[in-house]
């Protein structure tokens, strides 16, 4: 399973260092960035997908809870604060957990394990992704996704309706897509498992297109 991509929104240097160290010690977490205020974090989230936010309450410019209310479709959120009185409001906003500073690594691990457990639930589904296409963020519904093909520094995404060309690597797309629904079967191809019509030892067929199975990926189809 791909790592949980996370960001930290924290203006206290010591608290930031503690979180950074804890994330570095947790194999299934990947720190994508840290921000000293919610405005900077908001700018980042416009152009990047994130699975988890570690969010302080008392931030300059825009408080943590107010920032959280601005997110139309927020990822998982773990509140980190020295003030216990915001716990009820946090849980009303459906945060995953509430870490009261100072917290040790075992308490931190308990919180992030809740995010991991949620991602492993059968009902967990990412319904769509956004990709950059000609300087625009284009929504692609995963239910329409057929396969993608690497084309040097670009990938071609083929859906039931149309095709998109985005400047991303195949690895970046693999990290973005839910691993239970999409499988890499070749160095250059990732396919939607639900859209496979038939397969042999050497290829799969999706909507009349034959896609090769790479030599090092022969066992992937057998595990579906």
Distance between the termini: 14 Å
Task: Please give the order of strands in the largest beta sheet.
Answer: 2-1-3-4-5
Which descriptor suits the 3D outline? elongated
Strand content: 25-35%
Radius of gyration over all CA atoms, rounded: 20 Å
**Uncertain ranges:** none
Class inferred from helices and paired strands: alpha/beta
Mean model confidence by pLDDT: 88
Query: What is the count of DSSP helices, taking H or I runs of 4+ residues?
Result: 7
**How can the largest sheet be summarized?**
5 strands, parallel
Strand count: 15
What is the H/E order?
Answer: EHEHEHEHEHEEEEEHEEEEEH
**How helical, in percent, are the residues?**
25-40%
Structure, explained:
There is one protein chain. The protein is an alpha/beta fold and 224 residues long. 28% of the residues lie in helices and 34% in strands. The protein has seven helices and 15 strands. A five-stranded parallel beta sheet has the order 2-1-3-4-5. Strands 10-9-8-12-11 form a five-stranded antiparallel beta sheet. Strands 13-14-15 form a three-stranded antiparallel beta sheet, with no helix packed on it. Strand 11 and strand 12 form a beta hairpin. It is elongated. The two termini are 14 Å apart.
SSE order and pairing:
Layout: E1 4-9, H1 13-24, E2 29-35, H2 38-47, E3 52-56, H3 64-70, E4 76-81, H4 87-92, E5 97-100, H5 105-119, E6 128-133, E7 136-141, E8 145-151, E9 154-159, E10 163-166, H6 170-176, E11 182-186, E12 189-192, E13 198-199, E14 203-206, E15 209-212, H7 218-222
Parallel strand pairs: 1-2, 1-3, 3-4, 4-5
Antiparallel strand pairs: 6-7, 8-9, 8-12, 9-10, 11-12, 13-14, 14-15
């Amino acid at each position: 399973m791909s790592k949980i991509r996370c960001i930290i929104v924290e203006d206290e240097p010591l608290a930031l260092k503690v979180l950074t160290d804890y994330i570095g010690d947790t194999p299934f977490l990947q720190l994508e960035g840290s921000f000293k205020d919610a405005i900077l974090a908001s700018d980042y989230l416009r152009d990047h997908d994130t699975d988890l936010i570690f969010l302080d309450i008392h931030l300059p410019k825009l408080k943590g809870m107010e920032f959280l209310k601005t997110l139309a479709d927020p990822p998982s959120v773990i509140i980190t604060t020295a003030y216990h009185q915001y716990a009820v409001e946090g849980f009303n906003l459906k945060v995953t957990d509430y870490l009261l500073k100072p917290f040790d690594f075992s308490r931190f691990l308990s919180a992030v394990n809740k995010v991991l457990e949620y991602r492993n639930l059968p009902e967990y589904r990412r319904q769509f992704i956004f990709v950059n296409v000609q300087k625009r963020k284009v929504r692609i519904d995963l239910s329409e996704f057929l396969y993608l093909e690497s084309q040097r520094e670009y990938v071609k995404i083929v859906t039931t309706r149309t095709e998109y060309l985005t400047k991303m690597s195949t690895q970046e797309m693999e990290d973005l897509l839910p691993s239970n629904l999409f499988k890499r079967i070749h160095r250059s191809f990732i396919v939607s498992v639900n859209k496979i019509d038939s397969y042999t030892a050497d290829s799969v067929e999706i909507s009349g297109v034959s896609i090769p199975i790479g030599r090092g990926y022969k066992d992937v189809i057998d595990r579906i």
